[in-house]
Amino acid sequence: MKQFFLVVLAVALFACSGNKKQAEVAVTVYDVESLLAVAEQNVNDTIKVAGFVTHTCKHSGKKCFIVGESHSISLQVLAGGEIESFSSELIGSKLSITGVLKEYHLSQEQIDERENNVKLQQQEGAASEESCATEMSNISDMRQWMKDHDKDYYIIYYVEGLKYEVLE
């Protein structure tokens, strides 16, 4: 009977220590820039990230984009878990979002297709010179990253949102 009690106690202590570790991870709140700096090591992990909402999907509200303090890097967040949608009223608000960090690989072929579409829009006058130049610059940056990292794809990180709270 004593051995049974000790085994149950050991299992309970082990289970509690595991939950404590999960709670500690959930307390760390990244800003967008610091999350992206460690993204490769945290893919498929539950994370918390804080940022300012710059855009929400107008039709479904199923995604939003957040930026950090520098407003130079954005991160897409998809609605899921407790998040039914992102209201346009959140634009400008600072959110703390809990979710799972994911990555998407944009292939060389997809980048080539994107470049061809930009050139076509430019020729047809369907997009402004400024937006085309920005997109072409982004494509150039993607290709440079692929070359620097010896990859045949470009990584895009995003968050599958579980819940959020408004901070400001």
State the gist of this model.
Strand 3 (63-67) and strand 4 (74-78) form a beta hairpin. The chain is of the alpha/beta class. The chain is built from five helices and six strands.
Topology:
Layout: H1 2-27, E1 30-31, H2 32-37, H3 39-42, E2 46-56, E3 63-67, E4 74-78, E5 94-107, H4 108-124, H5 129-148, E6 153-166
Helix pairs in contact: 4-5
Commentary on this structure:
With 168 residues, the chain is of the alpha/beta class. It has one domain: OB fold (Dihydrolipoamide Acetyltransferase, E2P), CATH 2.40.50. Helices cover 43% and strands 30% of the residues. It has five helices and six strands; from the N terminus they run αβααββββααβ. A five-stranded mixed beta barrel has the order 2-3-4-6-5.
Kindly give the count of domains. Answer: 1
Uncertain segments of ≥5 residues (pLDDT<50)?
1-26
Average pLDDT: 85
Q: Write out the strand line-up for the largest beta sheet, numbering strands in chain order.
A: 2-3-4-6-5
* Sheet of most strands: 5 strands, mixed, barrel
Architecture (CATH level 2) name: Beta Barrel
Helix fraction by DSSP (H/I, runs of at least 4): 40-55%
Give me some keywords for this one.
single chain; 168 residues; OB fold (Dihydrolipoamide Acetyltransferase, E2P); 5 helices; globular; alpha/beta; 6 strands; disordered N terminus
